[in-house]
Each structure stands twice: as C-alpha cells, then as structure tokens.
Specification:
By secondary structure, this protein is of the alpha/beta class. The chain has two domains: 64 residues, N-terminal domain of phosphatidylinositol transfer protein sec14p (Helicase, Ruva Protein, domain 3, Orthogonal Bundle); 208 residues, 3-Layer(aba) Sandwich (Phosphatidylinositol Transfer Protein Sec14p). It is 52% helix and 8% strand. It contains twelve helices and five strands. It has a five-stranded mixed sheet.
C-alpha cells in the first residue's frame, strides 16, 4: 500500500471511530475481523476519495441497521416449495473455487425468469447469498488458504437470453444497485460465456457507459469459456454449463449434484440449513415466519439508470428488427406459394 493510500485509510479509520455504537456493531459483521480491508474496498469504490467513501460506508451501515440485515440469515423463505421456486427461477450457485481460493459463483443470466415469487423474495434471496458468502464462505476460504480472501469470481451464462429479459431489467438493476452501494469490490472478475448475438449487440453500446474500473473486471469468453476458465480453476470447479460446448445453462441437468442452481445441490442445502439453524437460535420455540422481508429498495444511480435504459432500447431495437425479418420471411413464403 502506497503512502497516499495508507494516509487515506488512516483518515477513513479516524472518521469511522466516531460513528455511533449501532453502526459499529454492524460494521463488525461487514469486516469479519479485517476492518482495514473493508475500508480499502469502499475507498476503491469511490476512487480513493475519503469523504465520499466515508459517506458511502455510513449510508451502507444505516441501510443495514434500518433493514435488520445482520439478522437476515435467520429469516428463511418458507415453505420449501416457495424457496424451491425461487431457486428454479433465480439461477445462481457455487460451483467451486479458483486455484487461488476465490469462490466461483455460476449465474444463469439467460434462463433466470424471476417469475415464481414477488420482487421482495428475490431481493431477500440475493442479499442472503451475499451475506452467506461474506460471513461463511469467504472466512472459511481465508482460513483454508492462510490469507485474507475478500472476493469471488462470477461466471454468467447467457444461454437463452431473449427479448423477455426486458421484464427483468428493473429487478436486476435493483440488485445491482444494492451490490454497488453495500457490497463494493466483492467480485474480482465477471466472465461472460455462451453469449448470443443479442448480448453482443447490447454489450457494444453498454461497454462505453461503464466506469473503467468495472470494464476491466468483465471478460467475454469465446463459446462456453472452458479453456480459458481451466487456466484459473480445476475441471471440478467449472460450472456445469462450461464443461462442453453447447451444453448451455439447463435448469435441470441429468446429475443434480453438478447443477449448482438447484436446491438439491450441496451449496444450497448448506445455505438453507444454515438459515434454518440461525432462525431456531433466535426464535427456538416459534414457527418460521412466512412472508418476504421487505428490504428498502434503493433508487438506481444515474449511471445504472442510463445503462438500464440503453439495454432496454437495444432490446427493443432488436425486437423490431426481428419482427421485421419475420414479416419479410412470411411474405417470401407467401409469394413462393403463389
């Protein structure tokens, strides 16, 4: 750490020593014994501007207190059938670890439909996975490798991406904003695989809108990305959709232990059991409370709003072109028949 960066951390630390006790308590849940590393993450997110980083972190701590985020891992989504529906439509899972020990999260961006529950259930599930990653998975990985591991990698499968993604943009923007404001610098690299033409068309116009720091984290890999990903992880840690070309991001693979999206996968079983265990500690005698947790949904930042509008516009253009092509093809068929 350079002199300037060290000075920024010291200034930031002095400011954080002045916050009220409730904020200090939730800060402990964030830093997990590594406060300096957390300060650095927020400084990076605000280009090492100490006042801006301080405001960002204090806003994050207030958000956590107001929405009881510290206890969200004690609030299961019940009944199980509802949670299974969430898992079948919000495709995410832990497929393994990189050779350096970073968790590998697989995300079925193309086939996720988010249509089995309300927005609040999906936001609750998203935050729970974030918190489980930060409080359980990353500390465990750090202990195993003997060094502080603070981030993960994400492999996004674009198989199945369609114009219907328009209906998901608002929810995805909410989740992205929650991550940007409250979980900055938690993803080391985003790997995009199985990208169809519709993604490539959107990526061309979205890429220039991203901050340079974000652009550097995104890598669009050819095909299923297997050969490139095997440079940083073993075959066993590859997401199932990266193991052979054209395999795609099926919701239901033949081997349920390989499909890290399903509730039957060890990762989701461990997560679900952990949440039930935490719930029983807080309320050992009472039944699990049904209903989603209504977390305050943040307003999108200007950059994210612009990106969402751009994606929406490009998808609409693509849809118009597709409909025009279909109409012309229909006319050709009709002319041939006549």
């Amino acid at each position: 750490m350079g002199i300037v960066a060290e000075d920024a951390v010291n200034q930031f630390e002095a400011l954080m020593n002045q916050v009220d006790e409730p904020l200090k308590k939730t800060f402990q849940n964030i830093h997990q014994g590594y406060p300096t590393g957390t300060l650095v993450r927020f400084l990076k997110a605000r280009e090492w501007n100490v006042p801006k980083a301080h405001k960002m972190l204090v806003d994050c701590l207030n958000w956590r207190v107001e929405n009881d985020i510290d206890n969200i891992l004690a609030k299961p989504i019940v009944p199980t059938d509802l949670y299974r529906g969430v898992r079948d439509s919000q495709l995410i899972g832990l497929s393994g670890y990189t050779k350096e020990g970073l968790p590998v999260f697989a995300i079925g961006a193309g086939f996720s439909t988010f249509d089995k529950a309300s927005v609040h259930y999906y936001v609750q599930s998203h935050i729970q996975i974030n918190e489980y990653r930060d409080r359980v998975i990353l500390p465990s990985a750090s202990k195993k490798h003997g060094r502080h591991i603070t981030s993960c990698v994400k492999v996004l499968d674009m198989t199945g991406l369609k114009l219907s993604a328009l209906s998901q943009i608002k929810l995805l923007t909410i989740m992205s904003t929650i991550d940007d404001l409250n979980y900055p610098e938690k993803t080391n690299t985003y790997y995009i695989v199985n990208a169809p033409y519709i993604f490539s068309a959107c990526w061309k116009v979205v890429k220039p809108l991203l901050q340079e720091r974000t652009r550097k984290k995104i890598q669009v890999l050819p095909g299923c990305g297997r050969d490139e990903l095997l440079k940083i992880m073993d075959y066993a840690s590859l997401p199932h959709f990266c193991r052979r070309e054209g395999s795609g991001s099926s919701r239901h693979s033949g081997n349920e232990t390989d499909n890290c999206y399903t509730l039957d996968h060890p990762f989701h079983q461990q997560l679900y059991n952990y949440i039930k265990q935490q719930a029983s500690i807080i309320a050992p005698a009472g039944p699990y409370k049904q209903g989603s947790i209504h977390v305050h949904l943040p307003e999108s930042a200007a950059e994210e709003s612009e990106i969402a509008k751009t994606i929406e516009s490009e998808l609409q253009k693509f849809g118009n072109q597709t409909r025009l092509t279909d109409s012309l093809d229909a006319l050709k068929v009709s002319d041939n028949r006549n």
